[in-house]
Amino acid sequence: MTVAIEMGHTIAGAPAALDLEELLATRLLVQGNSGSGKSHLLRRLLEQSAPWVQQTIIDPEGDFVSLGERFGHLVIDAEEHTERGLQAAGERARIHRVSTVLNLEGLDAENQMRRAAAFLGGLFEVARDHWYPMLVVVDEAQLFAPAVAGEVSDEARKLSLGAMTNLMCRGRKRGLAGIIATQRLAKLAKNVAAEASNFLMGRTFLDIDMARAADLLGMERRQAEAFRDLERGQFMALGPALSRRPLGLRIGPTDTSPRNGTPRLMAMPEAALEDARAIILAAPPPEPVRPQRRAASPDLLDQLMAAKSAALDIRPEPVEPPISAEDLAQRRERVDRVLRAVLAEPDAGFRVIGVLYQEFVVRCRIEGLASVVPDLPAFRRMLTRARAGLGSDVAQDDAWQDVSVRASLLPEDMQGVFMMIARAAKEGWPCPSDAAIARAYGSHSLRRARRLLTYIEEQGLIVCQLDGTGRRTVTLVELAWATAPGDPNAEEAEQGSLAL
């Protein structure tokens, strides 16, 4: 079935239609300076396609929340939910086929990136049975897939850019059709923009942006000047879902409107200068008065100082006894026990590190270990070892020094998987199954576990082999450690019983 979405009219006055079926397979990129009508275009597309396909909108400014009243979209205020909660919400939205608006208004740039990445991750990681077609609209996409590092942390940028790359590069097979809008192509990561096959280019003024827009539309450089002459709501269209040749079109009206409309000129209020002076330059409100402590008399102050000196002369300074090696080993074992208890929770493998660390600190305090609680970087290293089934004493074992060095060649989130495989190889246990690898990586996806093994093998650290029965063996390069054959499709519980 072909569904044609009416976007407006061409410059010649003919109806301008968009093939929704083709759009689901080829994705869309919208560019235009602020005020060119990008948000209006997205709103028109969403309104026209709402009866036909599930939608979700990543909305950094809260412009699209009005779709909830008119078309029944579920508005999710990201400020009220954790990253884990938003990931679960994304999964459930796909399972139950509910259109959503992720409202990121009120969050700073880093938290917007983290929460959008979590929600997109939930959409992406849902089981194959729920890969229903969905339009995923990302307004101001340069915020979530920046071409260069900004003021946010590298971790937040990596999470957000990875989620956007998955959406545009690998989302099609999962039914996700990415629609991204940006003010400038130069600010958008190239690997994200390059995956779109349909383009709607609006008004832009910078030479570099006009040149890139002309290249994408197959226009000659001398024709790039035409982008300066486009009016608000006018776009040049190209792509299999729009037109086989560059086509000028004007976007039609919408049924809903954003909460923050375009500013309009208003008459200035009539007020006398003296009234304005009295209002603007009025004295600021008084600061809250803090109660002042009564000053002690000189005689009383001398008495207090003398009493303090006498107490210091009488009381010996406490000397903390040195910690013996045995006590240090016991504390380390208690800390490892606390960490194992945290990881024993059913969903511990899929929770973000910040939440795990908070629970770990609370449990350590309950156990009386507040003085030896590691900081967050040390906790990350402990977590990597724990997910591999290793304790803190591994750092003292010479046999694992080479393994740790090799693991450091991988991204931090993959090191635990590598060390888990290394342990199985050293002990001669069966090769971990895809389910065990996915859990150690913090994912539900068995496909991701297999891709992870492929990546580690491409780095020259391991060699994977399958025997005639489909059982897998992994050998560590140069160390000559090899796992016993293991079933990649085994359940995690079964795998654990074999290891024991």
UniProtKB/TrEMBL annotation:
Domain AAA+ ATPase: 24-345
UniProt cross-references to Gene3D superfamilies, sorted A to Z: P-loop containing nucleotide triphosphate hydrolases
Protein name, as recorded: AAA+ ATPase domain-containing protein
Pfam families assigned: DUF87 (PF01935)
Species this chain originates from: Mesorhizobium amorphae CCNWGS0123
